[in-house]
Design a protein that fits this description.
The chain has 839 residues and is of the alpha/beta class. It folds into three domains: 105 residues, no CATH class; 383 residues, Glycogen Phosphorylase B (Rossmann fold, 3-Layer(aba) Sandwich), CATH 3.40.50.2000; 236 residues, Rossmann fold (3-Layer(aba) Sandwich). Helix content is 50%, strand content 14%. Strand 16 and strand 17 form a beta hairpin. Helix 11 crosses helix 14 and helix 22 runs parallel beside helix 23. It starts with a helix and ends with a helix. The structure holds (1S)-1,5-anhydro-1-(2,5-dihydroxyphenyl)-D-glucitol. The site of (1S)-1,5-anhydro-1-(2,5-dihydroxyphenyl)-D-glucitol has 19 residues, from helix 6. One of its GO terms (biological process) is glycogen catabolic process. It comes from Hydrocarboniphaga daqingensis. GO terms for molecular function: glycogen phosphorylase activity; pyridoxal phosphate binding.
């Protein structure tokens, strides 16, 4: 019996290896065919980019059958579908991820290897689609990965920006922005669908008319029309047949619109008109958590939201679903307030164009939308000045007035006479210049409102959205963010992936809670040693990269202390800078002092108009220029600012980190998601009790987390008492030394004016409590160094961090959205055969 089982095993194995070699031969054949027939090159003339594109097309061909099968399954089953509306999708390169999800990464590496090429080299050829700024855009990308992996019908809707987030370089330590022409060499991952283009109106005025049933109706007579053309990218799930769609809209001038001008002989005018239209999807606004207030930005938001809602109506029509069932077919999620104009636009489409009664339309609208809030920063809550709004969207302003009037009538019944509350809840801000409040519109028009971490949701309820919470507490829930382990472990950290898979099998890739299984290996010396070897090799790779890019030598055995994220005062990169200077002062005072060698690695972009953030970059690079070359330091401190932090660069950095810096002022970071990527890859966190850090500490245990700093209620109390940072400065000798040294111009060739604005803000206002947290931070960092000296203890803590990161898979987050907000189920996809497809 056991021998027949053995024979079967054997046959099975042989079967697999036969199939694999077949796969491999087929892959090699289509790779070379694509080089020939798509790139028009033979190997001797082919560039690296030709090879990249040939491989991309080879992979794309293999995606197509899954994509078609998925569309067929959803269409025939009229599946309930999630529509994720987001102004940003920070996808990162597609090729590596698709190879992993198809399960052919290793075969592809062999195939290109046999042709004398290096797969990683080819992967780096891909221009990353940087269609987002930071956390919010990357979260959208992790979510559509998880939706596909969980086999949930979903569409991601956004804008196909021609220029993504700017490329950052450094010049004399200052940030310099270069444009990101990511489409320069073509994009093999997208398909244009001009047959599904829609028309978008702007400006003009509204008119009343009576319809054939003598009913009074409104018509919007636009001043300008722009076409929205969808470009579709397949989003494949991990080891499933599901390939969902990311549908990004490009703005084009309608052919017919400039004909008039053209015929009147105004050729230049017609061309200008075309340029104005196409400007709509030209460039991503480079502000993260900061309002731009620009007319073009409102136009972009309305453009992609109207395109997407019209697309949903088209889908209803082809599936012969009556428009009254819109909310049964679609769960529409608003990723922050950027798409919240959708509430008014769906009302316009249903009332003005589909001719539904207002109440019916409102019921459908509220049942369709959910709203995710991502920030507690008051300046990041979007508002549009009334004149601007009126100019761009005159009909929507009328609709918003009507929604507001009906809403405030309801409020008055509950809170009669409470005029202050009514003013706060109003969709229109009336004190001073008038504004439309987009968060209020999103709250009123959605059946579900969520924050992105426990603390954040609690603070929304107590503070930012308190009035809405008191009105409708049942709408509120928390959905703690997560990140996809496919990109952030499997693709980014192949060494760790092999170690975990050899230890636990590969189930953890779809069920990250299984990482808990690592805990039982914590006393296995061989396992711990392999763990350390993985980290050491990843650090050596990053050290080589840094040495090449920045011409500074890096010791892979030093503690890699990493802070990568957008540069912002509330994230406090300058607090980390103060710590580096404190260590430097210790060395200068006593050159023989014993110190754990550290490499401080920073990365992140500053919004081009955010001067303080740019000065923070200059401060870090200036400190590096002194510390890295001071002979007294003897290599014990190194500071590296890696330019152009991006998804691609993140994939090199997270796996090599020992220490993850998550040091925002308590109560300011909604969640953070980089914190999770570090944890999964076995870094320990030094962090404040802010955002998802709190939940990370809950999962890993206090003893495996370096906590410091004021708690949120303490920050509030200090604020209420009247915080005087000068007092902290006077009380702490270490702090005084650091501030005085920076203030003196020591890091600016003696020019004390360079960092004066930064020092002045800290000493006078310090709105983010750096000086209040400084001593606690430095003490905590000393504890970090003490623990790091015990390499074995550190490794055990790192393993536990990884083992306990299951909660932070975006698969968990998406399951919660599906069951608690979207009420949507998975729809497994059967692969259609060639004959099925042709029939
Ligand atoms: O969203 C992330 C959070 C993070 C928060 C970030 C964010 C943006 O990137 C842009 C605008 C905004 O309102 C919030 O800062 O804390 O992790 C995803 O939820």
């Amino acid at each position: 019996d056991s021998s027949s089982a053995g024979q079967e095993d054997d046959r099975e194995r042989r079967g697999i290896s036969e199939r694999a070699s077949l796969d491999k031969r087929a892959l090699r054949r289509s790779f070379l065919d694509n080089l020939l027939y798509v790139q028009g090159k033979f190997p001797r003339l082919a560039t690296k980019n030709d090879y990249y594109l040939a491989l991309a097309h080879t992979v794309r061909d293999r995606l197509m059958q899954r994509w078609i099968s998925t569309a067929a399954a959803y269409t025939t089953q009229c599946s309930r579908t999630v529509c994720y509306l987001s102004a940003e999708f920070l996808m990162g390169p597609h090729l590596g991820n698709n190879l992993i999800n198809l399960g052919i990464y290793d075969v592809a590496a062999e195939v290109v290897g046999e042709l004398g090429l290096d797969l990683e080299d080819l992967l780096y050829q891909e221009e990353e689609p940087g269609l987002g700024n930071g956390g919010l855009g990357r979260l959208a990308a992790c979510f559509i990965d998880s939706l596909a992996t969980l086999e949930v019908p979903a569409l991601g809707y956004g804008i196909r920006y021609e220029y993504g987030i700017f490329h950052q370089t450094l010049s004399d330590g200052w940030q310099v922005e270069k444009t990101d022409k990511w489409l320069r060499f073509g994009n093999p991952w997208e398909l244009a669908r001009p047959e599904w283009a829609v028309e978008i109106k702007f400006g003009g005025h509204t008119e009343q008319y009576t319809d054939e049933h003598q009913r009074l109706r409104v018509r919007w007579v636009a001043a300008r029309i722009v076409n929205g053309v969808p470009y579709d990218t397949p989003i494949l799930g991990y080891h499933v047949n599901t390939a969902n769609t990311l549908r990004l809209w490009k703005a084009e001038a309608p052919e017919s619109f400039d004909f008039g001008q053209f015929n009147r002989g105004d050729y230049a005018g017609a061309v200008t008109q075309k340029i104005v239209s196409e400007n709509l999807s030209k460039v991503l606004y480079p502000n993260d958590e900061q309002e731009a207030g620009k007319e073009l930005r409102l136009q972009q938001q309305f453009f992609f939201v109207s395109c997407s809602l019209q697309d949903m109506l088209r889908i209803l029509q082809i599936q012969r679903i009556p428009v009254e069932k819109f909310h049964e077919k679609f769960a529409v999620q608003l990723n922050d307030t950027h798409p919240s104009i959708g509430v008014a636009e769906l009302m316009r489409l249903l009332v003005d164009e589909q001719l539904l009664a207002w109440d019916t339309a409102w019921d459908i609208t509220c049942k369709s939308f959910g709203y995710t809030n991502h920030t507690l920063m008051p300046e990041a809550l979007e508002r549009w000045s009334l004149p601007l709004f009126q100019r761009v969207l005159p009909r929507h302003l009328e609709i918003i007035y009507e929604i507001n009037a009906r809403f405030l009538d309801q409020v008055r019944i509950r809170f009669f006479g409470d005029e202050a509350r009514i003013a706060r809840l109003s969709l229109i801000e009336e004190q001073g210049p008038r504004y439309v409040r987009m968060a209020n519109l999103a709250c009123v028009g959605s059946h579900a409102i969520n924050g992105v971490a426990d603390l954040h949701t609690e603070l929304l309820k107590q503070d930012v959205l308190k009035d809405f919470y008191e009105l409708c507490p049942e709408k509120f829930s928390n959905k703690t963010n997560g990140v996809t382990p496919r990109r952030w472990i499997v693709l980014a950290n192949p060494r760790l992936t092999s170690l975990i898979t050899e230890t636990l099998g590969d189930g953890w890739i779809r069920d990250l809670d299984l990482l808990r299984g690592l805990e039982s290996h914590i006393d296995d010396a061989a396992f711990v040693q392999r763990w350390q070897a993985v980290k050491r090799a990843n650090k050596a790779d990053l050290a080589t990269h840094i040495e090449r890019r920045l011409q500074i030598s890096i010791d892979p055995d030093s503690l890699f202390d990493v802070q990568v994220k957008r540069i912002h005062e509330y994230k406090r990169q300058h607090l980390a800078a103060l710590h580096i200077v404190a260590l430097y002062c210790r060395i200068k005072a006593n050159p023989n002092i014993e110190m754990v060698p550290r490499t401080f690695i920073f990365g992140g972009k500053a919004a081009p108009g955010y001067h303080m953030a740019k000065l923070m970059i200059k401060l870090i690079t200036a400190i590096g220029d002194v510390v890295n070359f001071d002979p007294d330091v003897r290599g014990r401190l190194k500071v590296a600012f890696l330019p152009n932090f991006s998804v691609t660069n993140g994939q090199r950095i997270y796996p090599a980190a020992d220490l993850s810096e998550q040091i925002s002022t308590a109560g300011k970071e909604a969640s953070g998601t980089g914190n999770m990527k570090f944890q999964m890859n076995g870094a320990l966190t030094i962090g404040t009790m802010d955002g998802a850090n709190i939940e990370i500490m809950e999962e890993v245990g206090k003893e495996n987390f370096f906590q410091f700093g004021l708690l949120t209620p303490e920050v509030y109390a200090w604020q209420a008492r009247g915080y005087r940072p000068q007092e902290c400065y006077e009380r702490s000798p270490a702090l005084r030394e650091v501030i005085d040294l920076i203030g003196s111009g020591y890091f600016a060739r003696g020019d004390s004016s360079v960092f004066k604005p930064l020092i002045d803000v800290l000493l006078r206002y310090d709105p983010y409590f750096l000086l209040a947290d400084f001593d606690s931070y430095v003490a905590c960092q000393d504890e970090v160094s003490a623990v790091y000296k015990d390499k074995h203890r550190w490794a055990r803590m790192a393993i536990l961090n990884s083992a306990r990161s299951g909660k932070f898979s975006s698969d968990r987050t998406i399951r919660q959205y599906c069951s608690e907000i979207w009420n949507v189920d998975k729809v497994p996809v059967r692969l259609l055969s060639q004959e099925d497809v042709e029939a």
